[in-house]
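Hi,

I'm pasting everything inline rather than attaching a file, because the server keeps stripping attachments. The sequence lines come first, and each chain or strand is labelled.
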Amino acid sequence: DTEVTQTPKHLVMGMTNKKSLKCEQHMGHRAMYWYKQKAKKPPELMFVYSYEKLSINESVPSRFSPECPNSSLLNLHLHALQPEDSALYLCASSQEWSGYEQYFGPGTRLTVT
Amino acid sequence: SQQGEEDPQALSIQEGENATMNCSYKTSINNLQWYRQNSGRGLVHLILIRSNEREKHSGRLRVTLDTSKKSSSLLITASRAADTASYFCATDGGATNKLIFGTGTLLAVQP
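And the predicted assembly:
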């Protein structure tokens, strides 16, 4: 199984809502990532988890809160987002952090109204 | 910014033709990877080339790496309509080992 799954596929939320994005992989990968991608731009790294510990936070605003409950799951909790946070949010995993190909999920298309 | 630059930004070719995309980067790397992204979907890993390698092949893909020029190229031979997608190079290197994506090339293969 070389699949990374993400739910939901689409999410529309107001600026006062709290929602969560979920990512799951069963490849035994020890590194997991959240990326943000705006239209016609490359993915931008947000967070890296290695062995379930947060290793990189790319100065992401605190309204985005990552969580890694176990080695297969990665969540991104959203609260008080702004319209400019609307984007495609991609989850990825790799065997280890650095030096390995990353497997991406299909993404969650987020719209903040 | 450490982001790589890709050239051309957009490329339109006929089915059966070859497509070449170039990537230039700024810092030393451990490896360079190429990914494909179909419109609005997740990225698919194509090939990884390490800094001590100069050329790598995978099916119809050929990747070259010139670390002295800090550049790489991706060649897709005998293109198909299904190759229509955005292609990104990504460099892995430096103190933080983050994967930094280039600006991307949008390839359109006309049937």
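Chain A has no helices and eleven strands.

If the labels don't parse on your end, tell me and I'll reformat.
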